[in-house]
Amino acid sequence: MAADTTRPAWRDPNLLVPPAALVVLVVSLLLHVEGWLLVVPALFLGAAVLSAVHHAEVVAHRVGEPYGSLVLAVAVTVIEVGLIVTLMLGGGDDTSVLARDTVFAAVMITVNGIMGLSLFLASLRHHTAVFNAEGTGAALATVGTLAVLCLVLPSFTTSAPEAEYSGSQLGFAAIAALVLYVLFVLTQTVRHRDFFLPAARRSEEGETKPEEHADPPSVATTWVSLGLLLTSLVAVVGLAKVESPAIEGGVSDLGFPQAVVGVVIALLVLLPETIAAAKAARRDRTQISLNLAMGSAMASIGLTIPTLAVATIWLDTPLRLGLGSTQIVLLTITLLVGVLTVVPGRATRLTGTVHLVLLAAFLFLSVQP
Question: Does pTM top 0.70 for this prediction?
Answer without folding.
Answer: yes
